[in-house]
Amino acid sequence: MTETSVSNTSAAITIIGGGLAGSEAAWQVAQSGFKVLLYEMRPSTLTGAHLSGDLAELVCSNSLGSNLPDRASGVLKNELRQLKSMLLECAEASALPGGAALAVDREAFARMVTQKIENHPHIKVVREELKEIPQTPVIIASGPLTSESLSQSIAKLSGEEHLFFFDAIAPIIHAESINMNIAFRASRYGKGDSDAGDYINCPFSKDEYYSFVHELQSAERIELRSFEEAIRTGVKAGQFFEGCLPIEVIAERGIDSLAFGPMRPVGLRDPRTGRGSFAVVQLRQDNLAGSLYNLVGFQTNLKFPEQKRILRMIPGLENAEFERLGQMHRNTFIASPKLLRPTLQHITRDDLFFAGQITGVEGYMGNIATGLLAGINAARLLGYKQPITLPHETMLGALCHYITNASLKDFQPMKANFGILPALALEKRVGKRERSKLYAERAGKVLNEFLVIE
Predict the structure, then answer these.
(1) Which end of the chain is more exposed for a tag (fewer CB within 10 A), N or C?
(2) What share of the chain is helix, strand, coil (3-state, %, to 5)?
(3) Same domain (yes/no): 157, 19
(4) Rounded to two decimals, what is the model's pTM?
(5) What is the full DSSP assignment across 277-298?
(6) Once rounded to an integer, what is the mean pLDDT over residues 22-45?
(7) Domain end point (choices 330, 346, 367)
């Protein structure tokens, strides 16, 4: 659809992208009484990473991070509860056992969000690719897999080249193919909702671990043709976000890197024997039926035959059947420190907002949160109110401050963490756990005070 036809609709705002950020933004604007035109190119145009045409489909993990109130992700969730996030409500309604984390049935979650968006009287979903940025009010939440046409339109507007990094997704296996004579159920340090434990754990002996890593280090990988074009055009290429490193990249850093990373065995003992293990691979429930499990932290870009061969070296997965193998896809984000304000508005256009992973926030909750703020601010602008800048002491305010104030020299995607919050004014030194609790309490208090004023 062209810019002219978009501007001729009765919609107050156009939102590009029906992922986590776009869906939340659409809901917030619509709940304020304004009409929304939500463009989502799937399923007519596929991304290579998504599997369905549902809105808010989770591509990587099915975990939305910690629910604990003194963890950074938990602080952000509490803020979103106060701000009435629709997607967080859907996530909690489709939750699965996940220990201290909020894990969801990804299909149930996406279906629930899709139904709410499609049934909202103020939202019209258009299933086609929007290739140009409209001159009318718009929120761009096209995500890390932004189409080439829209990417060019954004680059034309900003005058800046995009930054790229490559992300990888973890395999999913069928539960019935797990050998439970070897694997065992447990959560770290016994935390979780069920007595048996929310995770399935595959234990390694020292010899099994080193054999596994040796094969991983020498395994064949899928060639990344995108690198060639990235290097040719001068784009920063070959970057991985540290939180989503493929296991083979971690293994290159040293023989014990995985044992201190995603395969660390701390807090896990086989309840049948009481013994620990040298290393462990954890499996997390991926659907409500409990028939699918994903390999936690096991993003990979190995060739498919190699994935099957090496992952079946994991004790308990010797006969694993795969629902989905790991793969790598390009994530795109803009130079937000030069292009955006903390309100998520473009520096030269008040009615142009960006939200989600394209802004440089990482993690599902960060995407939802920035979509929520962009939606709130777009609705305020449409209602002739001043868009809000959340206090830096809140987790969402700190995220928005980071992506709009970081140095471009080393600008990298950022997840919610206590390190981006202003330092606490403490009279004496306190431990990490107590400090996290104080950060969480301050964030909640500051947000409450801010909302009362607003």
Answers:
(1) C
(2) 40, 15, 45
(3) yes
(4) 0.73
(5) -SEEEEEEE-STTS-EEEETT-
(6) 92
(7) 330
Q: Using CA atoms, how far apart are residues 146 and 84, in angstroms rounded to an integer? A: 27
| From 5-9, 128-132, 409-413, the region with the lowest mean pLDDT | 5-9
Domain count, the chain: 2
3-state DSSP assignment of residue 116:
helix
Q: What is the DSSP letter of 388?
A: P
Collapsing DSSP states into helix, strand and coil, what is residue 302?
Answer: strand
325 and 340 housed in the same domain: no
- How far is 283 from 265, CA to CA, in rounded Å? 13
User: pLDDT class for 295, splitting at 50, 70, 90?
Assistant: very high
- Is the torsion defined by CA of 392, 398, 400, 401 positive or negative? positive
Q: What is the pLDDT of residues 47-76, one digit of tens each?
A: 655 567 799 998 878 899 999 999 999 999
Host domain of residue 188? 168-330
- Please name which of 163, 28, 131 lies closest in space to residue 85, comparing C-alpha atoms: 28
The DSSP bridge pattern shows strands 138-140 and 352-354 to be parallel
- Rounded CA-CA distance 339/161 in Å is 11
What string of DSSP letters covers 316-367? T-TT--EEE--EEEEEEE--HHHHB-TTSBBSS-TTEEE-SGGGTB-SHHHH
The per-residue pLDDT for range 189-225, each reduced to its tens digit, is 776 655 567 899 999 999 999 999 999 999 998 875 5
pLDDT, mean over the chain: 86
Under 8 Å between Cβ of 307 and 147: no
